[in-house]
Amino acid sequence: MSSNATEHSAAPATPQFEAVVIGAGVGGIAAGCQLTRAGIEDFVILDRRADFSGTWIANTYPGVALDVPSTSYEFTFAPNQWSRVFAEGAEVQQYCQRVAREHGLYERARFGVSVEREVWDDDNGYWTVHLVGGETLTARYVLSATGFFLEPRSNAGIPGVDEYTGKLMHSAGWDHSFDYRGKRVAVIGTGASSMQIVPSIVAEVDHLDVYQRTATWCFPKPDFAFGLLGRRLMRSRRFHHLAYMANWYVYQAIVVAAEKLPKRAALAVVAALENTLRAAYRLYLRFQVTDRQARRALVPRHGLMANMPTFGRGFLQTFSRPNGHLVTTPIERFTADGIRTADGADHPYDMIVLATGFEPASEPESFPIGTVLGRDGFDLGEFYRANGMQAYAGVTIPKMPNRWFLYGPYGWNGVTWVSMMENAALHVARVIAAAKANNAEVVEVTPRAHDAWHRAMATNPFTLVAQEYLVERQVKRHNVRSYFSNSRGEAPILRPSLGFRDSLWDHSERFDPRADYGFRAAGQQKLENHDAA
Questions:
Q1: Could you count the other beta carbons within 10 Å of the beta carbon of residue 5?
Q2: Is the CB of residue 195 less than 8 Å from the CB of residue 315?
Q3: Helix intervals (H) in 441-497
Q4: Which of 275, 349, 359, 378 sits at 20 to 30 Å (Cα–Cα) from 128?
């Protein structure tokens, strides 16, 4: 038996399921829908939460809503009649659950379970999925749909969190039973969640301090409920298609321009645009914030795309209210009563909100060693630490047969998260369908295809521009923590294009699984080159 076979010497030759999908958020829904559309019915979807929709189950904080237009946050095969330009969290959750229900995914879901480890059994050609609590499941294929933002940063690296005796609230686990009205409140962080929470609670609390380490670009949010014309457009599938394609071409044009221009010219254009935008932003702040000191601190030092810019209604105006304050003095530690800042001052609070972000899938350290064990002793966590972030088509790696990410390195291949998940799930469904057509039990990307893909990603002019912009000009110069780069100095998020006609963003629709994957029976010797495969 292979070194990564299951612990049981007499493992059954047939797995319990054809596929296991880990995660019931947007990625898990996309996976389930694409599998059923491809005629693959025998699968189970696992999630630690109690229902479909993932982040929209976890994030129910005051003011939670989309920060992209609603029509950008839908599957192309399931357009929605949204009620407003930027849908609120409850409406997005309802949409996700409706799609899951209409595609029969509830009958295939198990909630309240967490995956601890995945182990490949090469003799039998399937994965053993170990759940927390000791239960195991076996499946021919595994689709990991755990998202880009993995685990919340529980204390943002601030010591003393266990000493605090007040209410500690995380944006990804809001306790609605706690009444914060009339109380002293602190919000740590100025990212997307903070920009929705702060204006939603400031009018109800007695005192609100917002702790800022890095100023964030915050643009006005043109949000409103649709009227008669808007509701009519929402009923038109053609309008949804046109809105999707308009977004696709705008984003694609930016990427293609970065690929075509010389690197120095592309960076010079970006710098000129950002200098102009920063001057306009300063003027905008004059109309939003009356406090001169706060206004000065709210001007971002970093570039526009060091992190995703945000859209906010009322966040900036918070610092013109008598009870709203911006605090830029670094936090030293939590205390029993609240927060102590680096100047030695103690600040008492009844509630402290941690809007401090998540561990992203762009970091090798986000993949624990020993949790995904593939063929011939392959360990995903060890591989990423040693070799950096890489994956063929953003979904798979050699020595991980029958397993895919729904989001992996260089996986940003569309306008929004939903379109990315839909495209990645389509790739996987097409490969599994090809395996079934070839009567193969094991399918694995060839090293040649994977290595060629990774070279194309790492050496593409767009990637080189992104690395220079993000790592050299943002992280090192401005000490900004960017989700788009990682601790190795890579920028493994955004996928290059290669032009409108042959765009790599459409790779899932155009690639030939037989050209880049090897197909074999369980227990058969793995052939390490494409010609032999």
A1: 16
A2: yes
A3: 447-459, 461-467, 476-478
A4: 359
User: How far apart are alpha carbons 281 and 369 in whole angstroms?
Assistant: 44
In contact, 79 and 8? CB cutoff 8 Å: no
Asked if 446 contacts 516 with a C-beta cutoff of 8 angstroms, the reply is yes
Give, for 441, the enclosing helix (H) or strand (E).
none
Q: Which two tokens stand for residue 204?
A: 């109800």
CB 358 within 8 A of CB 150: yes
Q: Are 206 and 323 in contact (CB under 8 A)?
A: yes
CB 420 within 8 A of CB 499: no
Q: In whole numbers, what is the pLDDT of the chain averaged over residues?
A: 92
- 3-state SS of 278-326 is HHHHHHHHHHHCCCHHHHHHCCCCCCCCCCCCEEECCCHHHHHCCCEEE
What are the contacts of 268-272 at 24+ separation with CB within 8 A?
Answer: 270/303, 270/469
Residue 200: its H or E element: helix 192-201
Start-to-end C-alpha separation, the chain: 22
Secondary structure of 122-138 in the HEC alphabet?
CCCCEEEEEECCCCEEE
Q: Write the DSSP string, 330-386.
A: PEEEE-SSEEEETTS-EEE-SEEEE---EEETTSGGGS-TTSEE-GGG-BHHHHHHH
Nearest to 514 by CA among 421, 417, 425, 449: 449
Half-sphere exposure of 407 (CA within 13 A, CB side): 27
Strand-pairing partners, residue 134, are none
- For residues 195 and 64, give the distance between their C-alpha atoms in angstroms, rounded to a whole number: 9
Residue 425 CA to residue 414 CA, distance in Å, equals: 13
Residue type, 114: S
Which residues are registered as beta bridge partners of 22? 46, 144
Which DSSP helix (H) or strand (E) runs through 245? helix 237-260
Confidence label for 526 from pLDDT (cuts 50, 70 and 90) = low
Q: Where are the beta strands (DSSP E) in 73-166?
A: 109-111, 115-121, 126-131, 136-144, 149-152
- Output 425 or 2, whichever has higher pLDDT: 425
Owner of token pair 């003011």:
63
DSSP 73: S
Q: d(Cα 242, Cα 146) in Å, to the nearest integer?
A: 30
Q: Give the Cα separation of 409 and 67 in Å (integer).
A: 23
Per-residue model confidence as pLDDT tens digits over 123-168: 999 999 999 999 999 999 999 999 988 887 777 789 999 999 999 9
Report the C-alpha gap between 415 and 410 in whole angstroms.
14
Give, as one character, the DSSP assignment of residue 42.
-
CA distance 215 to 190: 7
Model confidence at 251, pLDDT cuts 50, 70, 90, reads confident
